[in-house]
Amino acid sequence: MRESIDEIGSGGIGIKLIGKIADELSYTRDGLRNCLLIVKYFQPVLPQDSTQAWVKPAIDVFSFNWLTKQRNRQLERSYNQPIKTIHLQLNTDIKSVPQVLWWVEQLEDLPIPEAVLQQCKLATIEGFTNAVRHAHKNLPFQTPIDLEITVFNERLEVKIWDVGEPFDIQAKLLEELPVIWSELGCMLD
């Protein structure tokens, strides 16, 4: 039950970790809910059985330019079309972390690099536990947390909605910035 939340140590590690994983990160208020958006870009994994050898066709420059323009138009259209979207709603319960992990594993069959999939799992779990421990700290156990992951051709988006008090993610990340820089061996002036 919720009593175990206080047993888990917190020191801003979750948002710092999410900040390191995400290529884009935002936290917005939409009506009564807050939404943490984590975006991660990747290069799709090619199927294992693609054994096509490189063949340089004899195409004139005009044809090549036309083909390139057609391909770019196709890519632009498909770039924002989701490959897959999954949803999950859970109560505010730290013991639901295994269920979150199982839920994210539905993405394993998609052309997502293994490292990116593992980062997605970690960021989703961290975002969920942050919602439980911080945003929903004083809310009833039955208060839902909504999760959504949308996979596109070259990115995935994780959205985590909570109903707690909003916080300033930019200020929190700036607060953590000196720690991040020191871990990287850099100095701030």
Structure description:
Helix 1 (13-21) packs antiparallel against helix 4. The protein contains five helices and five strands. The protein has 189 residues and is an alpha+beta fold. The longest helix has 22 residues, at 114-135. Mean pLDDT is 80; it is low at 1-9 and 50-61. Strand 1 and strand 2 (33-41) form a beta hairpin.
Radius of gyration: 21 Å
For the largest sheet, list the strands in their spatial order. Answer: 1-2-5-4-3
Ranges where pLDDT stays below 50 over 5 or more residues in a row are 1-9, 50-61
As a percent range, the share of strand residues is 15-25%
| Element-level helix/strand string | HEEHEHHEEH
How would you classify the helix and strand content by structural class?
alpha+beta
Count the beta strands: 5
User: Helical element count?
Assistant: 5
What is the overall shape? globular
Q: What is the arithmetic mean of pLDDT?
A: 80
How far is the N terminus from the C terminus?
A: 46 Å
Major sheet details: 5 strands, antiparallel
Helix fraction by DSSP (H/I, runs of at least 4): 25-40%
Please outline what is shown here.
39% of the residues lie in helices and 21% in strands. The chain is built from 5 helices and 5 strands, in the order αββαβααββα.
